[in-house]
Write a structure and sequence with these properties.
The protein contains 16 helices and 14 strands. The protein is an alpha/beta fold.
């Protein structure tokens, strides 16, 4: 058990009820009307009235309580540091495909924190298994209407689930069923493993979920694996295997479109990329298929969104091409291998052909089938740029860096630049933005800058 929860105040709005009561950044709220505040959900739930009693610990460590009042519709004026104020609920599963258990030994600790917290699922969209839920947790979810949740489903046949998740698998699906029955809505995810939960098992899982109307959508993603494990060496990279998955979900999609006005079940972009490597752009589902792109972070709809963004940015593309042609500059745009099948054809058929080159970088740091741009490391990018020739600027997508400007292998742009002669620029992942950003960097290049 951790210490009693403390909701640390990050800021207080001037003139607000909290400000009038003397609260300031550095104070902590410990309870509302005598009930501990475990997270931001508790705070929102318990502070809904216009008069509340707050227990606190001030910046000097002194404890006390005070009653706050506000006018109807007025905010209390408190912003907290973070969203969880007690211990994050950790994963107790032994998922055979867990990506965090496949990482190198030297990655930063935050990358291997295996949380399985329903609150983060609601607040941040992470997927949880529900295998660590107690009766109190379930009651709270229902009472506070913590919905929708994002839940890892994977399979419904007991022995298949246990083989995938571990000994607590049955607890998780039982809890899920009770929550669905109580009206909690769920967006589910299936991590698909060849020969394990695809084929007939996938069909059973989708049928089980479709029979429960509160399962609002399902995203299917292929297993990702690194070189730092020995259990897997295959995903759905073969055209036949990828097309089989797309074919399996099509009957459910057609039914759902008629009955629910949504495809309901979505295959990750990787399935389409692997199924149609030579003519991917001709086989992408339309934008209407993805609705509001709610599963964008799960790799569903990214390619369609990117292509549509590119094709609607013709003026910016033409301006960049004109600038590069006029100045004689050539640009390399760094990407993971996953972008080759759609980005290279987009460049080749437009005015940037011969002026901006897609530079795919093989992910040696993680290895396996890891090929998305967001998991590229500085060491791999630097390696490929040292091999490249004839570029005056290398553009690196911003997604490679975290909020602190660090790559997954803990390098910043400055350290990368120190190892390279070609100038580097960090730009957007969206063509409508990076066409202009690249042009601005090109215009700032010294007249003799070249690689």
């Amino acid at each position: 058990m951790g210490d009693a929860p403390r909701a640390l105040i990050a800021s207080v709005e001037a003139g607000s009820p909290a400000d009038d009561a003397g609260f300031y950044a550095g104070c902590s709220i410990t309870a509302v009307d005598g009930i501990p505040v475990r997270d931001i959900i508790d705070w929102r739930w318990m502070s809904a009235e216009d008069e509340i009693e707050l227990s606190y610990i001030d910046g000097d460590g002194d404890e006390g309580s005070v009653t706050l009042e506000r006018d109807g519709g007025e905010e209390w004026g408190i912003e907290f540091e973070g969203a969880i104020y007690d211990d994050v609920k950790l994963c107790r599963n032994a998922c055979t495909f867990c990506f965090m258990r496949q990482l190198p030994d030297d990655v930063r600790p935050s990358l291997v924190l295996r949380d399985d917290d329903f609150r983060l699922s609601f607040l941040q969209g992470t997927f949880v298994t529900l295998t660590n839920l107690g009766a109190e947790d379930e009651a709270r979810i229902v009472e506070q209407r913590i919905s929708p949740l994002r839940v890892s489903l994977h399979a419904v046949t007991p022995e298949v689930r246990r083989g995938l998740i571990g000994k607590h698998a049955a607890h998780g699906i039982a809890a899920l069923d009770r929550l669905l029955e109580a009206g909690i809505e769920v967006h589910a995810q299936i991590v698909l493993l060849p020969g394990v939960n695809d084929g007939e098992e996938l069909d059973r899982t989708l049928a089980w979920a479709y029979a429960r109307p509160n399962v609002k959508s399902i995203g299917i993603v292929p297993i990702g694996f690194t070189k730092h494990q020995t259990a897997f060496d295959k995903s759905f990279n073969d055209e036949t295997d990828a097309r089989a998955v797309i074919a399996c979900i099509e009957p459910f999609q057609k039914r759902a479109l008629v009955e629910r006005s949504t495809p309901w079940v979505f295959a990750a972009d990787e399935f389409y990329r692997n199924a149609y490597p030579k003519d991917l752009l001709d086989h992408l589902p339309p934008a209407s298929y993805y609705g509001d792109y709610d599963m964008f972070e799960d790799g569903i709809g990214i390619i369609r969104s990117f292509v549509d963004d590119w094709e609607s940015s013709g003026d910016a593309e033409n301006r960049l091409a004109s600038l590069l042609d006029r100045t004689g500059r050539r640009v390399a745009y760094v990407v993971g291998y996953a972008q080759r099948e759609f980005l290279e054809p987009l460049v080749a058929r437009g005015p940037l052909a011969g002026l901006m080159e897609v530079l795919p970088v093989k992910n040696e740091y993680f290895g396996g089938n890891v090929d998305v741009t967001g998991l590229l490391t500085a060491s791999d990018i630097v390696r490929e740029l040292k091999r490249a020739r004839g570029f005056d600027l290398a553009a690196i997508p911003r997604v490679v860096f975290n909020a602190d400007g660090m790559t997954l292998d803990d390098m910043d742009l400055g350290k990368m630049q120190n190892e390279l002669a070609v100038p580097l620029a960090v730009v957007s992942c969206n063509a409508s933005e990076y066409f202009g950003e690249i042009a601005a960097h090109v215009e700032r290049l010294a007249p003799d800058a070249e690689c």
